[in-house]
Amino acid sequence: MMIEAFTTTSPAKSQYTIDVHGFSQTERIILKSIFSLSARRAPKFVEFMPTVDSTMDSVPDIFLVDAEDPNAIADFRQKNATNTRPAILIGDTDHGIVCTILSRPLQWTKLFKAFDLAVGINTLSQTPKLEPAIGIAAPYEKTQQIIAIPTLRPSVPSIAPAQILDIAARKLASVNHSLTDNVTPTSPPDRPFNWVLVCDDNITVREFMRVKLAPFGFHVDYAETGEQAVGLTGTKHYTCVFLDVVMPGINGYQVCKLIKSKKGAAKTAVVMLSSKDSTFDKIRATMSGCDTYLTKPVNENRLFEVISKYLPTNA
Q: DSSP labels for 19-33?
């Protein structure tokens, strides 16, 4: 639920502060991740940290309040007695306050939109429309989850690691050049530089990841097969690889082992995205060197936490 919000009329800034009131420990962890990854956006949103000695930023730009916490509401009313700053309440009650109301659970996409609107930014009109790096179907209506569609695959004979590297090198030469045409949105000069690789033979999954990564200025390559992924990892360093498990040719476990076996390179985090959720599959992923195992359909908040963890702003 959202009601008319108070928005600022001051000139746009590169960074806005948010004063947080209330929330559980779990929600605070989510908010910490949100503020961390927000540094990759324009504008940035950081948690308000008043200091005794400084007069700058002595008043926050936005209040973020737990509507279910009476102490948080009381504290907010005291600090915003003159009603000069916009507020975002999380819960089901507005307490008679002119503000934006967002229902639980905390969702980072909705929070970013609410932050933008609170400072007078039209999120829809100002968000760049990025084209995918490979031929992907027109963007579908955004949903909260990926729909996992079972696919029948032919059996593939096992291949020795040495053969895999040789095959990958040869196949990379014939891969459609669009695979290395990267999504490179314009980003502020102080934004950290990260390459991300998404490898999945499912167009819907690739589009889902494109939409979720786009707001944060990552430079993204896409691959449809394990061979393409191995070939691309030989051309540049990827801070993080999102990797499907079941693909034509070599599977995600083999790809992960090859990525992790590279010597002398900076660490690459491998996040597996799979519809397989058995304990055996997760153990197998761990043994192959996987850093995090996410099951499909992917929970957006969990995905956000992973992005924040492996693609930090100080990378």
A: EEE---HHHHHHHHH
Domain coverage including residue 186 = 161-310
In a domain, 144, yes or no: no
Instruction: Determine the Cα–Cα distance for residues 143 and 132; give it in Å rounded to an integer.
Output: 18
Cα–Cα distance, 100 to 172 (Å, whole number): 50
Whether 107 maps to a domain, the answer reads: yes
The candidate with the shortest Cα–Cα distance to 2, out of 142, 81, 100, is: 100
Question: Is residue 139 one of the residues assigned to a domain?
Answer: no
CATH number at residue 108: 3.40.50.2300
Letter for the amino acid at 246? V
pLDDT tens-place string over residues 6-64: 444 455 688 899 999 999 998 998 888 888 888 777 788 999 987 654 444 578 999 99
- Spatial separation of the C-alpha atoms in residues 227 and 211, rounded to whole Å: 24
3-state secondary structure of 156: coil
Nearest to 257 by CA among 159, 172, 133: 159
**Cβ atoms of 242 and 209 closer than 8 Å:** yes
